[in-house]
Write a structure and sequence with these properties.
single chain; alpha/beta; Rossmann fold; 6-stranded parallel β-sheet; 37% helix; 18% strand
Length: 336
C-alpha cells in the first residue's frame, strides 16, 4: 500500500517540422513555412549566422553552466556561427528582455532554456512568428510555437528514480521527503509525476515535500527544516543533484548523513557533479541528464547551413548511475 502525506514547508522522436530545403528561401516563419515575410533562415555554408542563447540561471546551477559550455564547444566546429549568451539569473522578466534584445540584434536563430514555462511562452512565440527558428532546451514552454524541443524524458527519469527508491533503496518501504525544483519549470512537475508512478503500489510514504528551486543552498535550508519536522525519514528524492547535495550537507550537520539515502538527477561528468557524488557515496544514485548543448548546435547547423528540416522533438538518452557503474559512466561521458 502506498501512503502520501504532503506537508507544506514555508520558505519518439516527433514529427519533422517542414522547413524550406532551398537555401535563401524567404518567408515569415522559417519554422512553419508558407508565409510571406523578410526573414531568411538558411544561406548555406557561405552564410554567417548570429545565434542567441538565452539561459535561465547560471548562478548556483552547474548544469546550466555546463549547457553553455557544451554549446560553446560545439559551436567552435561551425565557423559560420557566432553565438551570443545571456543569463536571466532566474528572472522571467529579464529573460523576456534578453530575447527581445536578441530580436533587436536580428539573430538568425534562438536557443532558449526557459526559467519557467508560462512566462516565457509569449516571447518565444514572438520570435517564432517572426520567422526565427527556435530551439527550446531542457525546459519546455506552453504550446508548440517553436521549431524543436531538445531534452530528455523527465517523467521517465522520475519514474526510474521512484522505482530505484522502492526496489533498491527502501525495498521494505519507509518514509521519505521530496525536494522539488522551481515550481513553474516543466521538469519539476514531470520529475515529480514520474516519481509518483515509480513508487505507486509500494510502501513508500512521502511525509513532506519542499521547493528547493534547483539550488544547493535552498535544498540545504529546506532539509534542515524537514529533518526537524520529520526526524525519522530514511531517504530523500531530490529532483537534481545540487539539491541532493544540499540535503546531504544538512543531514551531515546533525549526524544523519550515514543513515539517510539520497537520490538526485543530472549526473554531470565534472569533478563537482553528481556522478562523482555517487562514486564518493554521498548519493545513492543519480541519472545522467544531457544538457542538449551539442545537439542544439547540430540542429542549428542543419537548419541554417544545411537547409534541412529538424524533428519537432528530440528526446535525449539518460542513464541510471550507481556506485557500481559511476566510474565507467564518468569516463564514458568525457569526465576527467
Amino acid at each position: 500500500m502506498r501512503f502520501r502525506v504532503r506537508t507544506a514547508i514555508a520558505l519518439t522522436v516527433g514529427l519533422p517540422l517542414t522547413l524550406s530545403a532551398a537555401c535563401g528561401t524567404t518567408h515569415e516563419n522559417s519554422g512553419q513555412g508558407g508565409q510571406s515575410g523578410t526573414h531568411t533562415a538558411c544561406k548555406g555554408s557561405g552564410g554567417h549566422y548570429l545565434i542567441g542563447m538565452s539561459q535561465a540561471n547560471l548562478a548556483g546551477e552547474p548544469y546550466r553552466q555546463q549547457m553553455d559550455d557544451d554549446i560553446r564547444a560545439a559551436a567552435k566546429g561551425v565557423p559560420q556561427f557566432d553565438v551570443k549568451f545571456a543569463d536571466a539569473a532566474a528572472d522571467n522578466v529579464r529573460q523576456q528582455n534578453d530575447v527581445d534584445n536578441y530580436l533587436t540584434q536580428r539573430i538568425d536563430l534562438l536557443i532558449i532554456s526557459p526559467n519557467e514555462a508560462t512566462p516565457l511562452t509569449a516571447v518565444v512565440k514572438k520570435a517564432y512568428d517572426k520567422g526565427i527558428p527556435v530551439l527550446v532546451l531542457d525546459r519546455k514552454v506552453d504550446g508548440d510555437s517553436y521549431t524543436s524541443f531538445i531534452g530528455a524524458d523527465n517523467k521517465q527519469i522520475g519514474k526510474q528514480a521512484g522505482e530505484f527508491m522502492a526496489d533498491t533503496v527502501l525495498p521494505k518501504g519507509g518514509k521519505i521527503v521530496e525536494l522539488k525544483g522551481l515550481a513553474g519549470s516543466t521538469p519539476a512537475h514531470e520529475r515529480s509525476d514520474g516519481f509518483d508512478e515509480g513508487i505507486a503500489g509500494k510502501s513508500i510514504q512521502i511525509v513532506a515535500t519542499a521547493d528547493g528551486d534547483w539550488l544547493r543552498e535552498k535544498g540545504q535550508q529546506q532539509m534542515d527544516a524537514l529533518l526537524k519536522a520529520h526526524p525519522d525519514i530514511q531517504a530523500v528524492y531530490a529532483e537534481n543533484d545540487e539539491m541532493a547535495e544540499g540535503a546531504y550537507l544538512a543531514a551531515q550537520s546533525v549526524g544523519r548523513a550515514g543513515d539517510i539515502r539520497f537520490i538526485g538527477i543530472d549526473g554531470l561528468p565534472i569533478a563537482a557533479g553528481g556522478i562523482k557524488a555517487v562514486e564518493a557515496g554521498r548519493l545513492a544514485a543519480t541519472f545522467v541528464y544531457p544538457t542538449g548543448g551539442s545537439e542544439a548546435i547540430a540542429a542549428a547547423k542543419k537548419i541554417l547551413v544545411d537547409c534541412q528540416p529538424v524533428d519537432k522533438k528530440q528526446t535525449l538518452p539518460t542513464q541510471l548511475v550507481t556506485k557500481d557503474n559511476a566510474a565507467a559512466v564518468y569516463k564514458a561521458n568525457g569526465g576527467s
